[in-house]
Design goal:
ATP hydrolysis activity; binds adenosine-5'-triphosphate; 4-stranded antiparallel β-sheet; about 20% strand; about 230 residues; alpha/beta; 9 helices; Rossmann fold; 5-stranded parallel β-sheet
Length: about 230
């Protein structure tokens, strides 16, 4: 589902690469935990996987599509269709209700809408089903996002990422604001939903206690030759 070959990325303001990855393959349905200390390049890697930025060298393929051969606008479309994103700051729209936030990606992505149609459901029904699975009380569905707790907003952000079953889900430290029990509960819900939609999950955190929820762990400093060289 995801393939990196000889990737090298240097931030424009820097002289040395932040990331050098010779090879990385992630299969469909894998749940991968990417771990490493602050500054080792985790967020940079996710931005490359999401096609927000492209590497100066090498190739990144998502579902056989080479991201560097697409224009920035085409990458935006590709991302909307194929990648569900969950960030630390959720990026939910405060003036929209919970339900409208969850169905929003279907307005930007024909593919997500089509996948729902093929599954015999609508964006609204799919959003309700996801929110139910993620244990978000029905009494909150019409409320504006601003009236929800952080933990509740997190679950809305996950439902929004998952709607229309994009083949790849990328999550960047979405549990950092939660206590241990809520974190484990949240991850159990997230991984169960990812299994349901058979997406590949790439989850980044510096908290290695979360490892038990995943099928594979990658220590980024071991994979990233740029960081290894700096540390040597
Ligand atoms: N916008 C930017 N411009 C220039 N350099 C950047 C930028 N963002 C990150 N970097 C560089 O890339 C390196 C890796 O940063 P990145 O945010 O990917 O690390 P991280 O592992 O996600 O860290 P954290 O756990 O603290 O979020 C940083 O040390 C920094 O030097």
């Amino acid at each position: 589902m995801i393939e990196l070959q000889n990737v090298s990325f240097t931030w424009p303001s820097q002289t040395e690469p932040t990331l050098k990855i010779e090879s990385l393959t992630i299969a469909a349905g894998e749940k991968v935990f990417i771990h490493g200390p602050s500054g080792c390049g985790k967020s940079t890697l996710l931005s490359l996987l999401a096609g927000v930025m492209v590497p100066q060298q090498g190739e990144i393929l998502i579902d056989h599509q080479a991201l560097q051969s697409l224009s920035a606008g085409q990458r935006d479309h590709f991302r909307a269709d194929n990648i569900g994103l969950v960030f630390q700051q959720f990026n939910l729209l405060p003036y929209l209700s919970v339900l409208d936030n969850v169905t929003l990606p279907c307005q930007f992505s024909k593919q997500r809408k089509l996948r729902l149609q093929h599954a015999g459901t609508s964006p609204k029904d799919a959003a309700q089903q996801l929110l139910r699975h993620l244990d978000l009380s029905e009494s909150l569905w019409q409320k504006p996002i601003t009236q929800l707790s952080i933990g509740q907003q997190q679950r809305v952000a996950v439902a929004r990422a998952l709607i229309g079953s994009p083949p790849v889900i990328i999550a960047d430290e979405p549990t950092s604001a939660l206590d241990k029990q809520s974190r484990d509960q949240f991850l159990a819900l997230l991984t169960a939903e990812v299994d349901n939609s058979q997406s590949s999950l790439i989850f980044v955190s510096h908290d290695d206690e979360l490892q038990k929820h995943f099928s594979r762990m990658i220590r980024l400093p071991e994979l990233n030759q740029a960081v290894l060289r700096h540390e040597a």
